[in-house]
């Protein structure tokens, strides 16, 4: 809904030629006074037009009585009036040809249904005039490269701004200000602080897209409580990825309580959290749980990483730091690789004889007597392949330590090798010489390790080639008005998409059923088939292991009679080969109302819901990505075969998952959900086989099925049953 | 080994009447000069005796040529000499009647086997003379209440000490200094900074015991890499629990890499990490992974908590903070309880009309216009039962906010209600008015939530009644020299302890086996029984589901012949009723070489090792504790019955676990391990039944069993197989 028009207006809102402040105040601490003050204080060079019918001068600037009398149509109008005056002002702005209006006023969507309705009307007024709206309930936009600070955050007075390579785009003004504060306290320059508020029109995704175009931006930080335009965010992420700009997102509303709080906060729709995770992963956006996880990694992001490896070398003057870092490396999956024997020899030379020369490297007290020891060790390490990431930890420092020399040698190592180097010390003063030389420092080893882990994973994710959309023609579902396809139709769609389905016949009389049994050769499953029977086993209309004429006949008749009794449309009786596998899995797909196709792979069996073990993937993806996702399942250790078993055919499972994603994508949104359960996984080389399938049509205007379930979109959790 | 003698000497080492510094230096920045400087600088009032044969005066004090010529036997001697002089000095101290000697010198256990041997000899010399040793490779002891700072940490010059209620006891000097620094930077007073180094004699546990006796101490912080005297730590923990002093422990060497690094750091033995967890939990010691998790919670610990409830109320002037806190509450299991409707009405009165009055409470912009709004909300909350813990989050603050008034009202609320209140803000300056009034503050909501979670869990753990040791007579194992008991003997021990064992006969001929089958009535298992066959199924000598004369006869003969072929001692053939259950579990016990009896309960089945799902418990414990531990298993959701199943008999499972602990304790250490697997758990009221049992004797001087496994102590992982 936001992709069509006027992105240029938002770009212009960040670099406006003129700004009007409607409801301008002479008091620079009031909402209507702050932007006037900030625009002048932070060097905005365009025209500033205060608007206030009760004043002729505001903060020394000539003031206009109304929007209509402005000398030009401003690129940006800041609406700082209250109550009913907001609507009047928005109409006036639209009429005057304002390109973008920021509504700072609150009292809209965050107060309930009425407010939501009011802000929707404002958005309509704006849309009809080709004007963009930011807010309502927005803290405003701020661009510190040109002083266009149309924002009333108190924090800009508390902590001096400095233009820099970071863009903050946030639904919440408070969180945008908190992120600004944390980054500035760390000395990081911030160019954009943009808050969208209730998002009646402009979204975080759209502004993310705009700032991605700024060549000075090297890191984008997003805060959202609700994401409704994933396609816009995906486009921004794709562009950022091409330009090597990391995007980090704090998406709140993760849990039930958080979603409830988010809904009462902005009135926006909640997202299913697991799907959010999968979507962000697909687009190489790194998700964090709190502001510190963004700020902590910012400097590492800004420095960039030349190597994507996970090899870690730790050098410390404390043995206990070595131990704690080793613990954390294992916890995070960073590899403390073994050093080459030549490296160890060179380290031994650089240090006193009794020092440990394995990784982590304990310098013991060498630095007290020999300030060159660190440099010597680093030079020895420079040629060792074990290290992609270097952590230098100096928990003990102060009198007796030549920190300038240590910092000099560390900076020289970084410059010579291009490796990623971080330094930690307990005392902030001990870090100062390192920071002066441009090294990335942390107050604790844990923070440093978490930052190295996040940055290396994120850069690797950004560098992975984005997979292509699937080939293949569109899939057309059989005609019909029922919410579900019958099992036969569902199996036929799966078969046509190349999925390995258990051999089956659709039989319409006993003779056909007996012929099917003889042809299939061995035990069969006999199942009632009707588009109105998506949950046939609940009606006792599934008969397993039939392996005699009598058994097949009796099962067929029971299915036929049962369907007649229930009065469901006749779709025949399925006679299918009984299949065995090493382990049952389930593959599902659904069309999320916000994110579109989402694919689930789950360990199967009776307790699939009680003891969940599944992963979600947003297409497009390839088999290799499925394999990586599967490797994180609890059941993963069984894939290789344990206790003398052969390995499982994970390749076939991955191929099936990719094929299900293709079915979802090729159906053009016509499939609401697909549920393949069980999928029997066999030993390597023997493939997988799908034993049951159920496809749900995207609802248009359907009736209720015989099972009584309304044709509402199912959640992924329901999907797994 | 450390419980017997001379604890008084260690108490005296923290409050010595006189201190000698051997290797005293005139340079206050040298290891031998620091303690002289510190003792005087920090107001030590006892006698200071520098010892150095090359000087007559050290830092203005008369200097003695050697230990023998000291005018009195000092309570404490600081050994700051190097190499071979250490041993000479220790002997001289022992001869002179020194009560405790701290060896600051390094080059001992941390360098390898030779060093370990040398420090063991020093410990022997000391022990013979009744002298305690601290170190070697120790940073020393510091007591800031009396200036007895026999410690060479640089950090005391970087950050001024202040006596206070915290004791730091650490194996590592660097970590003790880092903890000191972090606490002092937060403004927390620290009395003790004690570092034990290589622990040739004095351990962290012993010093923990000493500081527990100090009535001024309100929080004890420990760092260890290796714990070898759990009984001493348990005694310290019991005393601390009685006095309400929380103990927080950073035990490094959690992972494989961490253990390897720890071993190269101090040469000490590694602990099995899961057992460490269970032991610390048993003794209400809270384990953390990094120094920040200690320091972050210190002020909350020092303030104490009147309520142990988990009800959380969040009040913030940022809607996004409300959302993020709600997410974290769910993540941490803190309950955002619903407010009473009367409370909500009163809050509505205190705030502008459109504010959300549910918990978390979004103040929106009320504080800007109405400084009394926070106080009004808090007064409304004071009578609501939802809140045990209060988080007041002010991410936005600065000009326009009357922080003094907000702090005043918050402090009044805390004083009036005695509730636990914490305050967060992004700007440190915004927190100052709250800190001045004694409120606990945090720089981020996440830190605050983590602290509330940890403190409330830890205080609840400390307040739980410690369970009593089990009743019952000692259990005597049957005579024998083999490492394992036969299955029959193992089952007999289990039966005698009241454990529910499947009905079985031990048969010595075919007729007995047939009689057993008839008597048991139904399918039976037929199993070879020999003390030399702990892994009988690996030799194909277990036959399940025998339910005919032929089958039982054939199985008996196969067992008899198989045992003859293997040449193992004849223990008969077990004929046991085939038992069914709802799910297989396993219960194990082992005698850990450091910690003694440890009990494991695990979900069972074929993949018990590939997909581990178990908990460890250190006795004594009661059934309620087992139930709590079991509730954390992945399999726990099945206990209540899912998909129409009846609940499982978890009560019987818990009773069985308690009985296994009693067997281990009542055997007086004679059982190296016990393995009950499978334990079939049935529906509620139907109990559990043990199908197989294997008891391993504590090794004295045994041979190797026929299965080839040496009689080494098994790990818990091995135990589960």
**Would you tell me which CATH topology of the largest domain in chain A applies?**
Rossmann fold
Task: Please estimate the helix content of chain A.
Answer: 25-40%
pLDDT < 50 stretches of chain A: 1-5, 701-721
The secondary structure category of chain A is alpha/beta
Keywords (chains A, B): Ligase
Enzyme class (chains A, B): ligase
Protein name (chains A, B): Trans-feruloyl-CoA synthase FCS1
EC number (chains A, B): 6.2.1.34
Report on this model:
The structure is a homodimer of 721-residue chains. The longest helix of chain A is centred in the middle third of the chain and has 19 residues, at 445-463. Chain A folds into four domains: 7-301, 3-Layer(aba) Sandwich (Rossmann fold); 306-463, Rossmann fold; 503-577, Dna Ligase, domain 1, CATH 3.30.1490.20; 583-719, ATP-grasp fold, B domain (D-amino Acid Aminotransferase, Chain A, domain 1, 2-Layer Sandwich), CATH 3.30.470. The model of chain A is unreliable at 1-5 and 701-721 (pLDDT under 50). In chain A, helix 16 links the parallel strand 17 and strand 18. In chain A, helix 20 crosses helix 21 (549-566). Chain A is α/β, with parallel strands linked by helices and 721 residues long. In chain A, the strands form six sheets. A seven-stranded mixed beta sheet of chain A has the order 9-8-11-10-12-13-14, sandwiched between helices. In chain A, strands 24, 25, 26, 27, 28 and 29 form a six-stranded antiparallel beta sheet that branches. Chains A and B meet through helix 5, helix 6, helix 9 and helix 12 of A and helix 5, helix 6, helix 9 and helix 12 of B. Chains A, B: This is Trans-feruloyl-CoA synthase FCS1. Chains A, B: Residues 13-108 form the CoA-binding domain.
